[in-house]
Write a structure and sequence with these properties.
Elements lengths: L2 H14 L16 H4 L12 H12 L6 E4 L6 H13 L4 H4 L2 E3 L6 H14 L4 E3 L6 H13 L7 E4 L13 H14 L3 E2 L1 H11 L3 H14 L4 E2 L1 H8 L4 H10 L20 H7 L4 H14 L4 H13 L6 H19 L4 H17 L2
Parallel strand pairs: 1-4, 2-3, 3-4, 5-6
Helix pairs in contact: 1-4, 3-4, 6-7, 8-10, 9-10, 9-11, 10-11, 12-14, 14-17, 15-16, 15-17, 16-17
């Protein structure tokens, strides 16, 4: 019996041991749902059937290799390796047999020499998070440790950029909707299919973010029913009414705006709008852009919503769309480089106004 067979036998015995009545155990009220509903076994991981099937076979054959997981955030990389460790060691033993490090904070060679090397001598399965952020010296030192202790230790490196498999693909809308609906039922939350689709769209395929938004919205709502306004508020989405006024200031006509979003508390005063009609184009755009930013919405979110509203509108000609695309891309880069949010939003709006006026 090798080390992995021994550990799996111990895990099976631990699972068969008598345990306390689950109904008598009250989970902490403040426990994040992403932890509460994290998959407990490799079979319960959703949306990564190919990867989980390979890992399950490797586990059954007691032939588990070193692994590198990569993929977008919220697709189940960390959950998969933790579920694999739970299947291998059992829920109790894995607490002492798994070392999880975040390379964003602990990526130097000293961490490899001290924490990982000492742990690898006595344990079986550490997991390293965002391993692509490690320094070159740290990666070289880690490689030697992986070679020296490969008989008793298995490493799983989790990163955002690909050099080798396993690849974690973005979760499907169907799988994400199924998981969120399951959590809503278990938490006695009322949420309509339309609001659920809005939550998935706002989260951009990140299941972890979707679950976090769902939990936050449940605390925000006075009732058990979650409305689309709650999801937009949690996700920092600019209300349609504000986005409509921003677009109108650039010369784009907004259709069917009346009553959009139902956010009467965030609308700008009619007096300011009437004054704006008498000002120059620049002053009108500046007034509305500053008003939107004063509501606390991020420039990145404003630009993302401008992208969806303008570039996906079939009534706007192709040439203005091309010019606006360049403006949005330049603003996004500048914001990532640390540019002033107010200036970038104003610059984008003025370029949109210019592109529309020339069409």
């Amino acid at each position: 019996m090798n080390a992995f067979d021994f550990m799996r036998a111990g895990a099976a015995a631990k699972k068969n041991a008598p345990t306390a009545d689950p109904s008598s155990i009250q989970p902490p009220a403040a426990l994040p749902w992403i932890e509460k509903y994290r998959p407990k076994s490799i079979e319960s991981v959703q949306g990564q059937e190919g990867t989980t099937k390979i890992l399950a076979k490797a586990l059954n054959r007691a032939d588990l290799p070193h692994m590198l997981f990569y993929g977008p955030p919220g697709t189940g990389k960390t959950s998969t390796i933790l579920a694999l460790a739970r299947d291998l060691f059992g829920p109790e033993l894995m607490k002492t047999r798994v070392l999880e490090l975040n390379a964003s904070d602990e990526r130097g060679i000293s961490v490899v020499r001290e924490k990982i090397k000492n742990f690898a001598k006595i344990s079986i399965s550490p997991a390293h998070h965002e391993a692509d952020s490690m320094t070159q010296d740290a990666q070289s030192a880690l490689r030697r440790i992986m070679e020296n202790y490969s008989k008793i230790t298995r490493f799983c490196l989790i990163c955002n950029y690909v050099t080798r498999k396993f690849r974690f693909k973005p979760l499907s809308v169907t799988g994400t909707r199924s998981k969120l609906a399951e959590i809503s039922t278990l938490e006695s939350i009322k949420i309509s299919p339309e609001v659920l689709d809005s939550l998935i769209s706002i989260s951009a395929g990140d299941l972890r973010r979707s679950i976090t938004f769902l939990q936050s919205a449940s605390k925000l709502s006075d009732t058990n029913e979650i409305l689309e306004h709650d999801i937009q508020e949690i996700g920092g989405i600019v209300p349609p009414k504000l986005m409509g006024r921003l677009l109108e200031s650039t010369g784009i006509e907004v259709r069917n705006q009346a009553g959009a979003g139902g956010d009467e508390d965030v609308e700008m005063s009619d007096v300011d709008l009437k004054k704006g009609r008498q000002k120059t184009s620049f002053e009108k755009v500046q007034d509305v852009a500053e008003s939107v930013l004063r509501e606390g919405y991020s420039a990145v979110q404003i630009i993302n919503q401008l992208h969806d509203l303008i570039l996906l509108d079939p009534l706007i000609p192709s040439k203005p769309k091309a010019l606006i695309s360049v403006a949005l891309g330049e603003a996004d880069k500048c914001l990532n480089d640390g540019a002033d949010e107010g200036l970038q939003v104003l610059a984008v709006c003025l370029k949109i106004s210019k592109a529309v006026s020339q069409s």
